Amino acid sequence: MWRSRRNRDRRTVVCIACGDSVLREDAREYDKEGDRWDRRDKEFEHLCTDCDDEICHQPRDGLESLVLSIESDGLSQEEFLDRYADAVSDSAGPPEDG
Ligand SMILES: [Zn+2]
Question: pLDDT digit string (tens) for 65-84?
Fold first, then answer.
């Protein structure tokens, strides 16, 4: 006689900050629109608890609007990160072009 653990959510999600796979039940939901209470038709992104702890202590002035401004449908993660790096380096000085 054994009990199925099917009632637990054993799916994993990928932390959007560090790329680690974490159990969904251990992950923190991250809503890029900043409105976790409206769950309709939404897909949440996830952070592992380590990264979630980290971002809480960091200033993120304008980060959401920046991210939303460079995000568009069909953008690969690589392209997105590229644009993001461009956008943040705009304010921090020109990037070194190897
Ligand atoms: Zn993480």
Answer: 888 888 888 888 899 889 88
In angstroms, the Cα distances linking 38 to 3, 14, 15, 31, 43 are 35, 22, 21, 10, 11
* Same domain flag for 53 and 68: no
Ion ligand 1 neighbours (CB, 5 A) are 15, 17-18, 48, 51
Same domain, 53 and 13: yes
Q: How far is the CA of 17 from the centre of ligand 1 (A)?
A: 5
Whether the Cβ atoms of residue 13 and residue 46 lie closer than 8 Å to each other: yes
Cα 69 to averaged position of ligand 1 atoms, centre (Å): 23
Task: Based on the fold, state whether residues 18 and 29 are members of the same structural domain.
Answer: yes
Residue 54 located in a structural domain = yes
